[in-house]
């Protein structure tokens, strides 16, 4: 049986050579593409979810981080920095450990989920809680990397995009061709940029000079790209930066995405859309994913599912189309949302004594 080697080894011939000089990997990628009949029934399409929470640190960031940290290691870098709403910092911290590098992370004070904070600390990152939001953290991280001997590993680093494009390759490899529609959450807009690059390259439509140019096309077409922002943090939908973004989906609480124009290119060139979904829609989709599909995600990850459900309600999902929704991060990152009902009341487990009769009774068994 084939043992998955991580995305650089698996897709070496379609990635820039410099990321393979010193590969730093935790075996990322190779994540499940799971059919979701509950979502197909609700949309009239054939829906799959790409479960990126199954990566080593629990989010899609690991695909980009193996590439960025490998490239940095190849250049002899000793230290990296990132701004993060949590997942990037968890991933950077873990890959930095493997590379023997120092990792500094800048996170918005009080606005990152506990699981992610724990990961960055567990992996020994120099974690600084910044008095500001993600956008402020990213400005500071970029300046730090410009003036000091540390490399920036946010998705403005092109190696991050190269690594993350492999998610598109895996989807096509699993389905035998590109889906009709690919849906995902949009925050800093690196991932929609990366998927679009991957789908284009696999269909033989990559920009001149891309890694893997000249290799045979694998897909016959590219999908429409459907991106979804949280309503309180939807600058691309609004057409202007949001100075005080707000959403319970803290991973995508971003008001001025770094890859804004590239996200618009993905949307426009694919004939897709970028829309917003409310926190209520996100939590409802989060609940459907866990209670009907069997996949537990963090709230931001449910934005893509919320988006296709919202479009289905408006009659905007083509019947019978094949849709892949990338669900970006694991539910255990931010588990508190499972412990309350949609109307906000707390869910508390039933207590019983340790005898079979009271247990059967509590379960309603006769
Ligand atoms: N989903 C999750 C779980 C994320 O953590 C992020 C981004 C996104 C979606 C959006 O992806 O930024 O490429 O558009 N998290 C970043 C971080 C900002 O710092 O972890 P994007």
Describe the structure in your own words.
The protein is an alpha/beta fold and 366 residues long. It has two domains: 7-58 and 167-339, Rossmann fold; 61-158, Rossmann fold (3-Layer(aba) Sandwich), CATH 3.40.50. The chain is built from 14 helices and ten strands. Strand 3, helix 4 (87-99) and strand 4 (102-108) form a beta-alpha-beta unit. It is globular and about 65 Å long. The structure holds ligand F0G. Residues 59, 61, 84-88, 155, 185-191, 251-252, 298, 300-301, 328-329 line the site of ligand F0G.
Helices and strands, with pairings:
Layout: H1 7-10, E1 33-35, H2 37-43, E2 46-51, H3 61-74, E3 79-83, H4 87-99, E4 102-108, H5 114-122, E5 126-130, H6 134-147, E6 151-152, H7 158-164, H8 166-175, E7 181-185, H9 190-202, E8 224-230, H10 235-238, H11 260-270, E9 273-277, H12 279-293, H13 303-313, E10 322-327, H14 356-362
Parallel strand pairs: 2-10, 3-4, 3-6, 4-5, 7-8, 7-10, 8-9
Antiparallel strand pairs: 1-2
Helix pairs in contact: 3-4, 3-7, 4-5, 7-9, 8-9, 9-11, 12-13
The structure holds ligand F0G.
């Amino acid at each position: 049986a084939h043992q998955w080697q991580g995305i650089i080894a698996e897709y070496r011939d379609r990635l820039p050579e410099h990321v393979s000089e010193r590969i730093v990997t935790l075996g990322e990628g190779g994540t499940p593409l799971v059919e979701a009949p509950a979502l197909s029934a609700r949309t009239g399409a054939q829906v799959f979810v790409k479960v990126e929470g199954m990566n080593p640190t629990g989010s899609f960031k690991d695909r980009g981080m193996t590439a960025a940290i490998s490239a940095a290691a190849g250049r002899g870098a000793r230290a990296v920095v990132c701004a993060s709403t949590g997942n990037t910092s968890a991933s950077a911290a873990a890959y930095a450990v493997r590379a023997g590098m120092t990792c500094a992370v800048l996170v918005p004070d009080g606005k990152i989920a506990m699981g992610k904070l724990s990961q960055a600390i567990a992996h020994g990152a120099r974690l600084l809680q910044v008095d500001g939001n993600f956008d402020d953290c990213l400005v500071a991280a970029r300046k730090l990397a410009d003036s000091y001997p540390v490399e920036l590993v946010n998705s403005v680093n092109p190696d991050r995009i190269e690594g993350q494009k492999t998610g598109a390759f895996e989807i096509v490899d699993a389905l035998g061709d590109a889906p009709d529609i690919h849906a995902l959450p949009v925050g800093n807009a690196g991932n929609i940029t990366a998927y679009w690059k991957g789908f284009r390259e696999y269909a033989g439509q990559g920009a001149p000079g891309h890694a893997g140019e000249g290799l045979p096309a694998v897909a016959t077409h590219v999908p429409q790209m459907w991106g979804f922002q949280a309503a309180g943090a939807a600058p691309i939908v609004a057409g202007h930066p949001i100075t005080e973004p707000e959403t319970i989906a803290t991973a995508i609480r971003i008001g001025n995405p770094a890859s804004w124009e590239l996200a618009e290119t993905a949307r426009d060139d694919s004939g897709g859309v970028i829309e917003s979904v409310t926190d209520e829609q996100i939590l409802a989709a989060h609940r459907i994913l866990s209670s009907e599909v069997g996949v537990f995600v963090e709230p931001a990850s449910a934005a893509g599912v919320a988006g296709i459900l919202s479009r289905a309600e408006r009659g905007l999902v083509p019947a019978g189309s094949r849709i892949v929704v990338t669900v970006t991060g694991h539910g255990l990152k931010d588990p508190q949302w499972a412990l309350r009902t949609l109307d906000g009341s707390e869910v508390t487990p039933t207590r019983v004594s340790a005898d079979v009769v009271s247990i059967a009774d509590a379960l309603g068994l006769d």
